[in-house]
Amino acid sequence: MKAFEYATALSTESAQQLVADSGQFIAGGNDLLGRLKEYLADAKIVVNIKSLPGLDKIETGSQTWSIGALVTVAQIENHAEIKKVFPGLHTAAAEVGSQQIRNVATVGGNLSQHSRCWYYRHRDTLCLKKHGDLCYARHGENRYHSLFTGNTCISPVVSNLATAFAALDATAIVLREGKETRMSMAELYANAWENPTAHNSLKPGDLILKIEIPTARTHSAYMQVSEKHEFDWALVSCAAAGKVSGGKISQPRVALGCISPVPHQVKAANDFLEGKTLDEATVSQAADMILKDAQPLEHNGYKVPIAHALIRRTLLQLKG
Amino acid sequence: MPSWPTETKYISHSTLRIDAVPKLTGQARYSSDIQAQGWLYGMILRSKWPAAKITSINLEKARAIPGIKAALTVQDGERTVRYYGEELAAVAGTTKQACLDALRAIEVEAKPLPHVVHETEAMKDDSPKVWEGSPNASNPKPSDKGDVDKAFAECAAVIEGFYTTPVQLHHPMETHGSTVSWTDDGVTAWVSTQGVFGSRDALAGGLKLEQSKVRVLSEFMGGGFGAKFPPVLESVLAARLSREVKAPVRLMLTRFDEALAVGNRPSSFQKIKLGASADGTLQAFEFDNYGTGGLGSGGTTAGGGSGVNLPQPYIYRVPNTRVKQTVVAINAGGARAFRAPAHPPASYGMECAMDDLAVKLGMDPVELRLKNDPSEIRQREYKIGIERFGWKEKYKKPGSSPGVVKVGVGCGGSAWSGGGGARTTQGEAQINPDGSIEVRLGVQDLGTGTKTVIAVVAAEILGLKPEQITVKIGDTRYPPGPGSGGSMTCPSVAPTVFDVCTKTLEQLQTQAGIADARGENWFSACKKLGVNPLVVHGQWQPGLSDSRACGVQFAEVEVDTETGMVTVKKITCIQDGGLIVNKNTFESQVNGGIIMGMGYALYEERIMDDLSGVVLNPNFETYKVSGIGDIPEIDITLLNMPERGVIGIGEPVTIPTASAIANAVANAIGVRVSSLPITPAKVLAALGKVPPSTVSKT
Amino acid sequence: MKKPETENAGSFSRRTFLKSLGTTAVAVAATQANAVAAELEKANTEKIIGPNAVPVTLKVNGETLKLQLEPRVTLLDALRNYSSLTGAKEGCDRAACGACTVMIDDVPVYSCQNLAIEAQGKAITTVEGLAKNGNLTKVQQAFLEKDALMCGYCTPGFVMSVTALLRKNPHPSVDDVKHACAGNICRCGTQPRIMEAALQASGVACNSKTEVIDYA
User: Fold this and answer.
1) Most buried among A119, A203, B561, C82, using CB within 10 Å?
2) How many Cα atoms within 13 Å fall on the side-chain side of residue C19?
3) If we measure between CA atoms, which residue out of B109, B58, B63, B54 comes closest to residue B83?
4) Which residues of A touch B630 (CB under 8 A)?
5) Left (φ > 0), alpha (ψ -120 to 50) or beta: where does C122 sit?
6) Number of structural domains, chain C?
7) For chain C, what is the total number of helices (H) and then of strands (E)?
8) In angstroms, rounded to a whole number, what is the distance separating the alpha carbons of residues A150 and B252?
9) Is A186 in the same domain as A297?
10) Which chains contact A through at least 3 pairs of Cβ atoms less than 8 Å apart?
């Protein structure tokens, strides 16, 4: 790492002031320190935001729960009520990294973490996302990359929590230039769909404050497939949520991670599932609709059948 | 001829590892833990070009970084680098941070040259050349035995397959490196090494010093698997820095460096044609293999050559063969001997071909092996194994397992030629008048349990308890021990300690005038030594050790045919152990070999990027090794063969694991995934479930 | 972006103000004493330190370490290179292998991916801090008896992960142990025996099923 100054912010104003235009926020530090070690990020100052007040609470509510951005992934995993009310979120959290990572990783950090594409993360490949000239993955090793993309960069979003939150229709509350802005998961990552140098829609100085999750979808599930059984990035992740009663689903949402810069959802598939009985034929049809426009690259076509299987399995799991 | 005792108290039983406590409490000092007075931090700058002419290296700005005390280049003058990661320069400073800043301040001028990092590309006529004026690929002539064409024509069943294995990285948990101090008295180096004497001599050569002026120490080291033999360039650089700064220098490689520059297992691309008569007797074998050992053969590899060539046909008797093997150079780090060099890929190719042939013949795979395996020991092991594993109940026609998650079983054998014992091994024992005893050997313990083996043998011969023996290893001031490779350590060390202690007992008994100084007579006998301790020297004796270990393994897997995920449920291993010195540590080696073999089967692959020429996965995140969540049930049966003496076990146990797993996957899904590692992507492709690419590359 | 504070004389930015703190309070503009004290306390906590070395106090295994560290120094680096606590190992320096695992306030973390300055005010436990008076803990004793180690380089990390697990969950299932240790890598292949050791330390007997057969 290059040398940096350090300060602990006690208010969001000072946090944004301290970070100015040449600093970085540090919460858990898993992503930032990894990037600083590879010289992928510049930080004249590292601003500790772990002491910002009021951002570390899990607040229950009859209509909406709120999870502060500083809540750790381990806290979500270990929260007995979350396991009951949002089981998909619980599972997604349990599969983030390893326990050593979950113990310090925050919700805000997990959502805003940068691309894990190995060309992006490599100190000696100047790829498109690092303002270089080309996407190495397109021509090269793209087994872990996107099936859907809106621009030349094919790096997918890999945050487990983003997938789970997307299915739960959660909203991120982001502090931008002193004002609170509400972003759906789709909006939180929209800029990555448009812009090859973007990882998400956050701008420098933005602070995620909390995530609000409506309780309307009483059933949720999350599954992922990785090459190893644990402590491995998902090849594909899938979250499904909805209100399920008598085997029928209402307000269905299915979201996929690791196959697009944005948690991948297809409105037509969600609309199709509304009111339907969750059986093999229906979920299979939904999966077809969700993956219809997939554009496999040279090495990542295998993600299509995996995604198909995960969509069917998570939906069927909602039945209980 | 000496012989081992038949009734034993410790040999062949289980003694707890005698160096466990310092490892468990954090007191054990490895090379990078040595508290050398005034030590400085050292770091290496590596080439970021896969091929380039380096025209100048300017260290001026690096030297000016606060905290930096020395900077040097690996070589003076212009030079050509041939792989991403080749060493260019080194610095020493008061902190890691100063060194990091200094590396970034070194100015390298380079003219990039064309590079090639994949075997198939490198074999093309118009490929960039790794070595100017030299073709990348050797041009071997096939070697024939018998009449292979005629034999194939007469076979009842013939299969053809193309079985491939990746470049595998050693990745010991402790990286390469050392703490080195070069003073007027000479060099003292605590090196993470598999051979203190080999490292000593390499250091002496590299520094142009007399060998007697160099001392290498390695009491604790964090694994090697073959990668930690000479060259010890990083230690030579640390020594040079130490001389300049007049202080010890601690220079350890990073995990990133380990993926680039300190060895690997060559790849293989094996075209195999195998034929048999109707009763399963093998008749013909045709083999055309190519693989890469990186930038070339020679200096960067131990064990001779590039390690690309495979012992084929592996194990099985085939009267008519044609073998051709091509060695291909690419711009990547050179291969080094890696746990049973050449055997795991050889086993993989052969055993996959055997199973494919068994399917074609409609024959049980184990029956096919029993028909053609010349080893009596392995025949016996298969027979024990099929009972223990439940082969006859578990083996079903390929792909016939019902449901989405399919179950399958497979097997494979190993034939390790190494071991035997180094005749040059020596040792000494010092008995003090108070009865305390020290046994000293210049050998190292990679985690294999060498120290404990020494204590067990000494205790047995002297009639003491292992806890009474102080074992000193890992110092070139002690009598010379073997390098720890080729599964040679135990068969070298155990007979040596046997000799040392046998002679020690004789001399003690003579000096003390006591007929039997063992057990309860020990302390009174030692007291009779008076003032001076008794120091007795001994050496390796023939007749107490042997080479050539066999072994067979069975695997049971589950394959999710919708996601491609492979889960290994069980590995059953039947392993000949010769005279098992310490059962405890022997078993741990078996576990270790199997788990490493499983990694080779399912997860491990060094990946090169064509365009940039870099290693794309230089970390544990994307170079995947078996984790605790992946471990199957491992069932071990050891064949006790004390009459063979001590055989080494480190390598044979890792040879057939990937073969057994690959065969089990093929049995489960009814189709062959012929390329390691067997990832979900490859399983799904074999099942025909992967849609073709629709995207242009631009 | 919020405008810099102008309560002080001149064109002092708040940032410069914060950076200049650490000497005396005299330079502060004259306002109400309480507000000044509160502002000072806030400013001190928000004080910019570094990039050069600053005093860092770490409480490790009950002892106090007073070090001079740059903010960029990791906790692992502080332990291994600025003190003699080399029990925690550097296996990858990238939060991927677990050899550096320590406990911060009883919670296992990768010391390589945590800044030393951020570990201040917390109770850090390394492997050297487990055995008291030379007596192995139950976990260490179980590792010894089950031969759950070979080269030993990953061992401190696994011991920390298993110790942390049993402190939180004294009767873990096999899956609990796998989940707790998933972030620790071993290349020698000790995982099966680590599993046995963890269960044994929790009171569940595990016996080796390895059979030795006489060939003759």
Assistant:
1) A119
2) 12
3) B54
4) 228-230
5) beta
6) 3
7) 7, 6
8) 44
9) no
10) B, C
Contacts of C195 in chain B (CB under 8 A): 628, 631
Q: Is residue A232 situated within a structural domain? A: yes
> Cα–Cα distance between A302 and B691 in angstroms, integer?
7
ipTM above threshold 0.95:
yes
Half-sphere exposure of A159 (CA within 13 A, CB side): 28
Predicted TM-score of the model (pTM): 0.96
- Gap between the Cα atoms of B667 and B672, Å rounded: 8
Cβ neighbours of residue B250 closer than 8 Å, sequence gap 6 or more: B31, B32, B34, B36, B39, B40, B41, B42, B177, B178, B179, B238
Angstrom distances, CA of residue B571 to CA of B148, B632, B661, C197: 36, 7, 9, 20
Inside any domain, residue C175: yes
Residue with tokens 């305390």: B436
CB C7 within 8 A of CB C17: no
Give the tokens for residue C47: 């004080």
Q: Say if strands A45-48 and A5-8 run parallel, antiparallel, or are unpaired.
A: parallel
Which chain B residues are closer than 8 Å to C208 by Cβ? 587
Specify the CATH number for the domain of residue C196.
1.10.150.120
Query: Is C206 domain-assigned?
Result: no
Residue B250 has pLDDT above 80, yes or no: yes
Closest-CA distance of chain C to residue B168, Å: 13
CB-facing half-sphere around the CA of B404: CA atoms within 13 A: 8
| A68 lies in some domain | yes
B522: helix, strand or coil: helix
Print the domain residue range for C188: 138-201
d(CA A287, CA A310): 9
- What are the pLDDT digits (tens) for A40-57? 999 999 999 999 999 999
C-alpha distances out from residue B468 to B202, B454, B570, Å:
36, 12, 39
* CATH number for position A29: 3.30.43
Q: Is the dihedral of CA C91, C92, C95, C96 positive or negative?
A: negative
Mean pLDDT of B215-244: 97
Instruction: Tell me the mean pLDDT in the region C180-198.
Output: 98
Q: Which CATH architecture has domain B34-116?
A: Alpha-Beta Complex (3.90)
List the single best residue of C89, C160, C210 to mutate versus B (max B Cβ within 10 A): C210
DSSP code for B374: -
List of E strands, B386-468: 405-413, 416-419, 426-431, 437-440
Select the residue of A39, A227, A295 nearest B679 (Cβ to Cβ).
A227
- Quick check: A254 and A286 in contact, CB under 8 A? yes
Give the residues across from B442 on adjacent strands. B480
Q: Helix, strand, coil: what percent of chain C each, to 5?
A: 35, 15, 50
DSSP annotation of A195 reads -
Q: Are residues A67 and A188 in the same domain?
A: yes
- Read off the pLDDT of residues B146-169 as tens digits, 9 standing for 90 and up: 999 999 999 999 999 999 999 999
Cβ contact (<8 Å) for B639 and C151? Answer: no
Beta bridge partners of C199: none
Q: Using alpha carbons, select from A47, A207, A26 the residue that is nearest to residue A105.
A: A26
Which CATH fold topology does B176-252 show?
Aldehyde Oxidoreductase; domain 4 (3.30.365)
Looking at the DSSP bridge assignments, the partners of residue B323 are B143, B287
What residues contact residue C94 under an 8 Å CB cut-off, 6+ apart?
A34, A37, B255, B619, B620, B621, C112, C113
A242: its two tokens:
């909805």
Q: A304 CB near a chain B CB, below 8 Å?
A: yes
Across chain C, the runs of DSSP E, i.e. the strands, are 54-60, 63-69, 101-104, 107-110, 123-125, 211-214
Which pLDDT tens digit goes with each residue over A168-195?
Answer: 999 999 999 999 999 999 999 999 999 9
Per the structure, the complete domain to which residue A283 belongs is given by 219-317
Of A122, A301, A305, the CB nearest to B616: A122
